[in-house]
Design a protein that fits this description.
alpha/beta, 2 helices, about 120 residues, 4-stranded mixed sheet, 2,3-Dihydroxybiphenyl 1,2-Dioxygenase, domain 1
Length: about 120
C-alpha cells in the first residue's frame, strides 16, 4: 500500500496550478470540469503521490492551519530565489543539522509548504 494523493479544496485554482507547476515542478495529469466546479490532478510523472486541487464554490475550503506539505528539491537556493522573485515571501533558509536544509512558503491558498534539501 502507498499514499496516492492529497486533496486540497481551493478557491484560487489557476494561481494554485501555476504555483505547483512552477515552484514544485509538477504537471497536470488530469483536468475535470463538472457542473459544480473543477478538479485538477498534478503529479511528477513518475507515479508518485499526486495533488488533487478541487475548486467548487459550495465546498468548504482548507484554511491552511495545522497542515503542511513538504517537497524535496536538489537546489534549495534556486527555489528560494524563485519564490522570492514571485513575491511569495519565503522564510529564511534553516539548517537544523548537517543532513538537511529547508524553508517555508505559503501557496496561493495559504497552505504551508516546506521545501527541503537533503545534504
Amino acid at each position: 500500500m502507498h499514499f496516492k494523493q492529497v486533496t486540497l479544496m481551493v478557491e484560487k485554482l489557476e494561481e494554485s496550478i501555476e504555483f505547483y507547476e512552477t515552484v514544485i515542478e509538477m504537471t497536470i495529469s488530469r483536468r475535470i470540469k463538472t457542473g459544480m466546479g473543477e478538479v485538477v490532478f498534478l503529479g511528477n510523472g513518475k507515479g508518485e503521490t499526486e495533488i488533487e486541487l478541487v475548486c467548487m464554490p459550495q465546498t468548504p475550503k482548507l484554511e491552511g492551519k495545522g497542515v503542511s506539505l513538504c517537497f524535496e528539491t536538489e537546489d534549495l537556493d534556486e527555489k528560494h530565489e524563485l519564490v522570492q522573485s514571485k513575491g511569495l515571501n519565503p522564510s529564511e533558509i534553516k539548517t537544523p543539522d548537517a543532513k538537511s536544509r529547508y524553508f517555508w512558503v505559503y501557496d496561493p491558498n495559504g497552505i504551508s509548504i516546506q521545501l527541503r534539501q537533503e545534504l
